[in-house]
Specification:
mainly alpha; 9 helices; about 85% helix
Length: about 240
């Protein structure tokens, strides 16, 4: 049975599922938002303390790189842990199918009974499923796992890496490339527009309220700039 499981996993890993793609996109959106807020925080603090454009640029660039790699490492560790947990659950269920088949059968039966199916019908369904796809059935019923369809930690890591860098580039370029008299308005505008976009995307991906997410992100962005500006002035 274990060899059959490996064959199924190899076959299913050849393509990414919709859930995997959505999770990768979500990691990208969150990474972009973190990149924007982290970089603008440093830029505002430094710009409030000094008018030297090169110093501001180096500080912002250093933070952008640190944020991007930190986000990537965090996503990789998080998704790898999730993947390891899922694979461990699959191995455990494969062992239980060998050592406690009746118990697994009962679990599947109870799953369908909890959804309103009669005891007799639920048992018939459970027997039919376990005769065709035993491991796939039990991991889906008991652990809500699609066999072989695990999150890709590298995809999430690279998504966070590039999105955090891209997000941080908005305030960095606005602050360092704008004429001196327009530095602050350009940076504030860049942050408001970029966090509004990430708020919109996160709401769409999470089936949330778009208006609420956008307003919340804008308020957080403005508060981030105010707090870090105050810190820079006090330096």
């Amino acid at each position: 049975m274990i060899s059959d499981v490996k064959k199924v996993e190899v076959k299913e890993k050849r393509h990414s599922t919709m859930q995997e793609r959505l999770n990768t996109i979500r990691a990208g959106v969150l990474g972009s938002n973190d990149g924007i807020l982290t970089v603008v925080g440093v830029l505002v603090s430094v710009a409030a303390a000094t008018t030297d454009n090169f110093t501001i640029f180096i500080a912002g660039l250093s933070d952008l790189l640190a944020c991007a790699f930190s986000m990537a490492c965090g996503e990789y560790a998080s998704v790898s842990t999730q993947k390891d947990t899922e694979e461990s659950a699959v191995r455990n269920e494969a062992m239980l199918l060998k050592t406690d088949f009746e118990g697994e059968l009962q679990s599947v039966q109870e799953y369908y009974m909890a959804r309103g199916v009669s005891e007799k019908t639920a048992l018939a369904i459970a027997k039919d499923l376990l005769s065709k796809k035993p491991l796939e059935t039990v991991v889906n019923v008991k652990d809500d796992i699609q066999l072989g369809q695990y999150m890709n930690p590298w995809a999430a890591a690279f998504s966070s890496l590039f999105s955090a860098a891209a997000g941080g580039a908005f305030p960095l370029l606005a602050m360092t490339l704008s004429p001196v008299q327009f530095q602050w308005p350009a940076t504030i505008l860049a942050v408001i527009v970029s966090v509004a976009i990430t708020g919109f995307l996160s709401a769409k991906l999470g089936d949330g309220l778009v208006k609420t997410a956008v307003i919340r992100n804008i308020i957080v962005g403005i508060l981030t700039m105010i707090i870090h500006y105050a810190v820079g002035v006090l330096m």
